[in-house]
Amino acid sequence: MADILVPVGFAIFIWWFSTGLILWLDRLPDTGVRWGLVLSSALAVAALFGLAHTARQATPTGAYCAFTCTLIIWGWHELTFLSGWLTGPRRHALAAGTVGWPRFVQSVRAILWHELGLLAMGIAVVLVTWDASNTVGIWTYGVLWTMRLSAKLNLFFGVRNFSEAFLPPHLKYLQSFFRRRRMNAFFPLAVGVATWVAVLLVQGALDPALPPGERAGQWLVAALLALAIVEHWLLVLPLETTALWRWAISRGDTAAAAKEGLVHAR
């Protein structure tokens, strides 16, 4: 039972804590955000070396290390996006009444640099772990990238919840590219395929002949995919999507409000 509970619990905790940490850092005053970017950049470089170091270590420790290193790399990208440092060439709201292909093109332009950065880092993750016995890093990054792309497409096609509280003030214009509706035709397909893959991962992890390192890795990736599926459901269910990270958002907003007050005081 510990073979299941430990990796699943680890994946849940690091997903919850890292998300909250990014939200909190992005709501700090400008100096804090800059230091956060500097430190996270250094950690991302170290994480790439960590992936390369554990690529030949098909052990439970190697699986946990590769999983954590990949999340650190992903967290750096999230912080660069939320801080406004790496978004896209379009940095203002969509013109009212824009629909169809023009809406899609402008939506892509709003996040283009971020998407290209994710692709470049994905290639780097593949290169440092290519033909290795420990592929947890590749699988982890693949789940993160695929499910985040799916979430963005669902926001574009239309969902009930935008999770607006996750967007800092300087990115509120991104809401103009979203569409609010109860559900869209793409959502069931995306969630259905993801759920099928998650079931396959769980079935593989339950194989008693699977080596311990591979078993730990599959449980970590399966748990992460399950969490991403839950995040997808939060897009369409009438639930509060920010409750798990209220501690990060509220503290960050307090700091942001204090900063805004100082600006007006001047």
In short:
With 266 residues, the protein is mainly α.
Mean pLDDT: 90
Helix segment tally: 8
Structural class comes to mainly alpha
Radius of gyration: 19 Å
**What profile does the largest beta sheet have?**
none
Counting DSSP E segments of at least 2 residues, the number of strands comes to: 0
Number of domains: 1
Order of helices and strands: HHHHHHHH
What do these coordinates show?
With 266 residues, the chain is mainly alpha-helical. It has one domain (2-265). Helix content is 71%, strand content 0%. The chain has helices at 2-26, 30-54, 60-82, 100-128, 136-157, 186-205, 212-236, 246-265. Helix 1 (2-26) crosses helix 7, helix 5 runs antiparallel to helix 6 (186-205) and helix 6 (186-205) packs antiparallel against helix 7. It is globular and about 55 Å long. The model is unreliable at 255-266 (pLDDT under 50).
Write the layout of secondary structure elements.
Elements (H helix, E strand, L loop, with lengths): L1 H25 L3 H25 L5 H23 L17 H29 L7 H22 L28 H20 L6 H25 L9 H20 L1
